Sequence to fold (287 residues):
Amino acid sequence: MRSQFVGSISLLAVAIAVVSCAPREGDGESAEDEARIALAPTAPGMLPAAITGDAPPPGGVDIHYLTGDTATTGYLAVPDGSGPFPAVILVHEWNGLVDRVRQMADAFAAEGYVALAADLFGGRTGSNPEENRALTSEARGDMPGVIANLNRAAAYVRARPDVTGRIAVMGWCFGGGIALSYGLDGEHHEGTAIFYGSLIEDPERLRALNHEVYGTFAEMDNGIPPDQVERFVQALRSIGVENDVHVYDDVNHGFWLRVDEEPDLRREPALDAWERLKAYLERTLGA
Fold:
């Protein structure tokens, strides 16, 4: 594998087993009978089944984390055990909160994180590019509402007795750009992980970041080309924001969440990105 190491680097990989009940819709309150995901961190050299297409059906629960809003439906995956655990908030791609993202939440629970996949589209998903563009345009047109949504998601997980209070926010494509925007405008949290999401290059704007940033990008991504990633990293460096940002050669936008579409090409860079992500979360959130 060849990759362009744009920022600083680090290293380190999910069999998922559901421990109790099947998914059910929650009401935003913690419940003793909620589904639990067995702790089963990936071993070195292993990818989570969520991105290789081998994961079982989602094993967590649907929740309504916005008071009085029954359309917006997040997805919660909780590790087996009493914790306390760090937490991650996942921001979906342009088609909304679908099972691949729910399975990724299960993967993080198996790693030992309380994982909440947020819903920024009010329970809707898109089935084609036109619908997806309409949904993302609507969300981007109400960024204060998006930030408020994620603030509430963070407040929900932070209030749980099995959460340490340390939270990272991450996303892919549309969600990656939103994760960065939330890092700038959201309430305090400890980590931001961007997978080929829209970038901001203005150092003065980026001064709002108060934690290390993780980024994974693709050499063949015409929407976010390597030179733009380099400018982003230089802006972060100019203001002293630590970062672990890589551009992977020979892959395109969207490569990481769907390794199964081109496994021979995507597996090796996806594994490196996963091990970097695991190490990043350990550094920023703690075990």
In short: The domain at 3-285 is CATH 3.40.50.1820 (Rossmann fold). The radius of gyration is 17 Å.
